């Protein structure tokens, strides 16, 4: 089951306190970014957030699950917790702060 657009719209609306939050289509689902850093994904209408020490402390109790078969487990944030916009924005913000900056992309093509 693919993620519905209304799920992404609600997530982005609730996460306003995290910075610039975007969702980009990836492999039929969505990658979630905060200020350009990928912090997780939404697969089958479920939010998966990359585990960090601060993010896990903020989220406890939280369970881990892979967002898709073969993926590393990530924190699965239950939909009922999305209702608390302040809590969700803080989770995404502190997760992004702890993750490394994305590596610069190499230019396409030759010299």
Automatic annotation (TrEMBL):
Disordered: annotated segments: 54-73
Gene3D superfamilies attached to this UniProt entry: YgaC/TfoX-N like chaperone
Chain ranges of the TfoX N-terminal domain: 15-95
InterPro entries: TfoX_N
Segments forming a coiled coil: none
Pfam families xref list: TfoX_N (PF04993)
Protein name: Competence protein TfoX
The organism's taxonomic lineage, starting at the top: Bacteria, Pseudomonadati, Pseudomonadota, Alphaproteobacteria, Sphingomonadales
